[in-house]
Design goal:
alpha/beta, UDP-N-acetylmuramoyl-L-alanine:D-glutamate ligase, 9-stranded mixed β-sheet, 4-stranded mixed β-sheet, 11 helices, 37% helix, globular, Carboh/pur_kinase_PfkB_CS
């Protein structure tokens, strides 16, 4: 099943306690499509500038990612610069240069309009709605958002939420969006806004999936060497959506498997800077880590409590 992502392809400069990398490959659509490409044919709609290295596009093409929807415009590529402390939970944004991304208006190639699974990356909610207008009959539309849109474009975001099936947010964004401190109450409030499902990402503490009658908690893989969490959330979404796309159905079991696969893919991303780890990871490693997740979370039924 075809999988479409609309988002950013960027150049990042990232500083963590373990090093500094400048002008490396980044962007929500980049992380998502690289992750999803292990599972399903993936199409990208994004914009880059004249300065964007062709080698990065060649890397995505080699992964089998369809780049017909990526345009190169006059000007500089979207750039983000951030810094992480030792906790690595949240980045401090040092600089954001929208450049050609500032005038980005997603236009889907005709063949993309038949996409069955759609991921709306972290872009303005009005642009997310424009994408929904252009796809014909998707089975599932998922969206991401952030505190900037929650604060500055709330009315547009609420309209978009009524048009999507699933929302990805982190725990802080869920609380900010709903005004609820308790994460369970926040999830239920988001479901009342329109989406049938919400995935709340909690960094090193894993992720939670909420539906009206179903909740699933997925841990994060305990990783000894965590160098750079940039893009982990989009990598998670790529593994999640890619798993649903190859299953060609959305039910309780596929959603649970998608949650685990999202965590598997995110666990690889954080092991090196940028997409360095995703460049080298193999399907056999993915299968092995998925099995590790099963062992990590398995336990037997409870026996008698009395002695």
């Amino acid at each position: 099943m075809s999988l479409l992502v609309v988002g950013s392809v960027a150049l990042d400069s990232v500083e963590t306690p373990f090093g500094l990398k400048e002008d490396v490959l980044g962007g929500s659509a980049t992380y998502f499509s690289t992750s999803a490409s292990f599972f399903a044919p993936t199409q990208v709609v994004a914009v880059v500038g004249e300065d964007f290295p062709q080698a990065h596009l060649d890397f995505l093409k080699a992964r089998g990612v369809d780049l017909e929807g990526v345009t190169r415009e006059k000007g500089r590529t979207f750039r983000w610069k951030g810094r992480y402390g030792f906790q690595l939970n949240e980045a401090e944004t040092l600089d954001t240069q929208l450049n050609v991304f500032q005038s980005f208006s997603p236009r889907l190639p005709e063949k993309y309009r038949d996409a069955q699974y759609v991921f709306l990356g972290n872009i303005h909610p009005e642009l997310q709605s424009q994408v929904v207008d252009q796809v014909k009959a998707p089975k599932l539309v998922a969206a991401d958002t952030m505190n900037f849109w929650i604060n500055g474009s709330r009315p547009a975001l609420l309209k978009t939420l009524k048009r999507v099936n699933l929302l990805f947010v982190n725990d802080g964004e869920a609380r900010q969006l709903t005004g609820e401190h308790n994460i369970v109450r926040a999830a239920r409030a988001i479901l009342d806004m329109g989406p049938q499902r919400v995935v709340i990402k909690r960094g090193e503490y894993g992720a939670l999936l909420f539906e009206k009658e179903h909740t699933f908690a997925c841990p994060a893989m305990p990783i000894a060497d965590v160098f750079d969490p940039t893009g982990a959330g989009d990598t998670f979404a790529g593994g999640f959506m890619g798993t649903l796309a190859i299953a060609s159905q959305v039910n309780t079991e596929t959603l649970r498997r998608a949650m685990v696969m999202g965590s598997v893919m995110a666990s690889f991303t954080v092991e090196k800077f940028s997409l360095e780890r995703l460049r080298e990871v193999t399907r056999s490693e993915i299968r092995a880590r998925f099995s590790d997740f099963k062992r990590l979370t398995h336990f037997e039924d409870l026996g008698p409590l009395e002695g």
